[in-house]
Design brief:
This protein is mainly alpha-helical and 122 residues long. The protein has a single domain, classed as Rossmann fold (3-Layer(aba) Sandwich). It contains four helices and four strands. Strands 1-4 form a two-stranded parallel sheet. Strands 2-3 form a two-stranded antiparallel sheet.
């Protein structure tokens, strides 16, 4: 059972392999970097509720509930849904390298498969 305080807090979640591929795309870019900063992210704000529902599609037995913050595994503040808490703009990285993150559902499926390979349950 996962305990959360709110379903509306957002995050921009990315798979570790996407981060590695983005770094390699930048390092292999001809002519070097055009900018001092590149956002490496999924580029999509997803609420905690949406994320948990995606996880439940992959792992139908997943259970979660709203609980008081002191009893939570995950605390999300619904007021933080923009700026550094929302979706990051990845157009610079996409445009200069052709890099694309894998879809979130696919990334979650990959992670669940990885966990299952050890005989565990996510």
């Amino acid at each position: 059972m996962i305990r959360i305080n709110d379903t509306e807090g957002v995050g921009d979640h990315i798979h570790a392999q996407d981060v590695a591929r983005a770094m390699m795309a930048l390092l292999e870019k001809e002519g070097g970097f055009d900018h001092p900063v590149y956002n490496v992210a999924q580029g999509e704000a997803v609420t905690l509720g949406q994320l948990l529902e995606l996880c439940r599609e992959i792992e139908p037995g997943l259970k979660w509930e709203i609980a008081p913050p002191a009893e939570c595994d995950i605390i999300a503040d619904p007021r933080f849904n923009g700026g550094r808490w929302g979706a990051y703009d990845i157009s610079r990285l996409r445009g200069e390298t052709g890099w694309e993150p894998i879809p979130l559902r696919q990334a979650l499926r990959h992670y669940a498969d990885f966990i299952h390979s050890f005989g565990a349950t996510p």
